[in-house]
Amino acid sequence: MIFITTSWLTLILLSLFDFIDLGMLNFAAVVLWIYSCCKFIKLSSNFSVVSITLMFSFTVTGIICAYAESGSLLSEIHQSAFLTGATVRTLSVCYFVMLGAFHSFNATSMIRFVHGQLSVITNELMIKFLTGTVFFLVLLMIYFRARYGSPNDYGVDRFYYWNNIAPKWGEYAKFILQQLSFLIGVVYAIKGRKKYLLIYFASVLSQFLAGEKFTGLFLSTIFFFVPLVVVRGINLWKVIFNARTIALTLIATGILMASAFLSYLAISGGDAGARLINRIVLQSQMWWAVDYYSSGSFTSIDEIVKHMLGFTDNPNLIGIRYLMSIVAPADVYSIFMDRGITFTMAGPVNLTYFFGFPLCLVPAVLIGWISGISFRIIVESIKSGDMILCLLSIKLYYVIIRVLTMADVHQLLELKTIMCVFVFITYSMLSSILYRK
């Protein structure tokens, strides 16, 4: 990792000089980032599979951002991007986040946190309860499709569909179903019964029928796959770069892209292709815009405490919502806040805004260390096979994803996150005491 880190530091140094071609630096950063991800995967399957969502998101957004800097329209903020070097700067921050996470994950590898389940009977009851819950939610998604149709039937997006057509709480039920894929994956990895595999497929299909296009289906798949790698000791490198895996990935991507195209076709008719391309470009909108509006220097302690860590009474001025208020026109910002939705991928470029570049690399490593410890908690929970710990860990997992991709750093300090860590530590201590006895 020394060679890769040195290469990143070299790119960062070059990006500080005005006479360097930023287009070439962006290209070099994308190539180096992909190489860095490959190195992480080869070094540790457990770390890489838990962080695969982040690596995928950062890779896709980095490639799109480099493309957007050639002059793409960022329609939501009513501005055209141009070459600024946002790609090389933000991917540099991504690398140091991952580097911090990698080292803290490895530093805790020698500690045995959990020695076994506290109650086998309770665990079996939890498995039955959670399996029944997934089955009920699958039927609920099918009911929503039969009773209310899909967003495509009305020519609307999924946000309007859940806010105005189907019951609002149904969207939260779909969100819970996505997270429960993780627990089904744990049970399938341990027991190996094919019925749990069928339950997973039913879950994904029901979400698709309920109007989910990509994100929910992708997360459900990752959540199900993570426990398989951890429990069965699968070599992630061999799985990813396998001809069968690549073929299945291309097929799945094709199906999802076709689904998204049909969705935009229902909404905008003949402009579906342009709308789909525009939606893809918007994946990098916050990376470019937040970097562009960053002053390049440290903002202030007060701004960090209020708008990054969330110590303010206005929830619309925290995390990604606060950054949206800076980069988006006032009317656009008001519309999004009224609808209760946000842009995407405001992290980890939020660190560039609050701390300036390259000073932001220091908090990037710190947040990476916190993430790496969280990843260790998740892996140890999976290995224990305890449903209570796994239920807590999926909540923690989702928080880390939100922190690193959506810039919601304040979620680290919320009571539910603190309680998840506290319960894990308490469980670990009880497990150790029982093991010694």
Q: Describe the main β-sheet briefly.
A: 2 strands, antiparallel
- Total DSSP E strands: 2
Tell me roughly what share of residues is in helical segments: over 70%
Rounded to an integer in angstroms, the radius of gyration calculated over CA atoms is 22 Å
pLDDT < 50 runs, ≥5 residues:
none
Taken from the alpha-carbon principal axes, the silhouette is: globular
- State the distance separating the first and last CA atoms: 42 Å
Which structural class do you get from the secondary structure elements? mainly alpha
Strand order of the largest sheet: 1-2
**Mean pLDDT score, rounded?**
91
Topology as a string of helices (H) and strands (E): HHHHEEHHHHHHHHHHHHHHHHHH
Number of helices: 22
User: Strand share of the residues?
Assistant: under 5%
Question: Can you walk through the features of this model?
Answer:
This protein is an all-alpha fold. It has a domain at 120-271. 75% of the residues lie in helices and 1% in strands. The chain is built from 22 helices and 2 strands. It has helices spanning 2-15, 22-43, 45-50, 52-68, 86-107, 120-148, 151-154, 158-164, 169-191, 194-209, 215-232, 236-240, 243-268, 272-281, 285-293, 301-308, 319-327, 330-339, 349-355, 361-384, 387-406, 415-436, and strands at 73-74, 79-80. The chain has a two-stranded antiparallel sheet. A hairpin with a 4-residue loop joins strand 1 and strand 2 (79-80). Helix 13 packs across helix 14 and helix 21 runs antiparallel to helix 22. The longest helix has 29 residues, at 120-148.
